[in-house]
Amino acid sequence: MKLLLLLLTVTLLLAQVTPVTKCWGKSGRCRTTCKKSEVYYILCKTEAKCCVDPKYVPVKSKLTDTNTSLESTSAV
């Protein structure tokens, strides 16, 4: 019984010591180093990296396709 009480105490203390800061709309976590399966896109308020799964990072659109379609319609 004392072992169970000790385990519960240690678990509760560790939960209080390591708060998790969310970022990127709750899809990322602020860390000093990202995991291998994560990328960082922005910085957190604490100057840590906002580590996000790559599927949540926006992809830049190709402006060249938009420009060629606008040029072809304005030439008519």
From TrEMBL:
Keyword Coiled coil carried by entry: no
Keyword terms of this UniProt record: Antibiotic, Antimicrobial, Defensin, Disulfide bond, Secreted, Signal
Localization of this protein: Secreted
Pfam families, alphabetized: Defensin_beta_2
Main location class: secreted
Domain Beta-defensin: 22-51
Alphabetized Gene3D superfamilies for the sequence: Antimicrobial Peptide, Beta-defensin 2, Chain A
Gene Ontology CC entries for this record: extracellular region
Disulfide bond among keywords: yes
InterPro entries: Beta-defensin, Beta_defensin_dom
Signal peptide (UniProt feature, chain positions): 1-15
Gene Ontology biological process: defense response to bacterium; innate immune response
Annotated family: Belongs to the beta-defensin family.
Biological role stated in the UniProt entry: Has antibacterial activity.
Name assigned to this protein: Beta-defensin
Source organism: Colobus angolensis palliatus
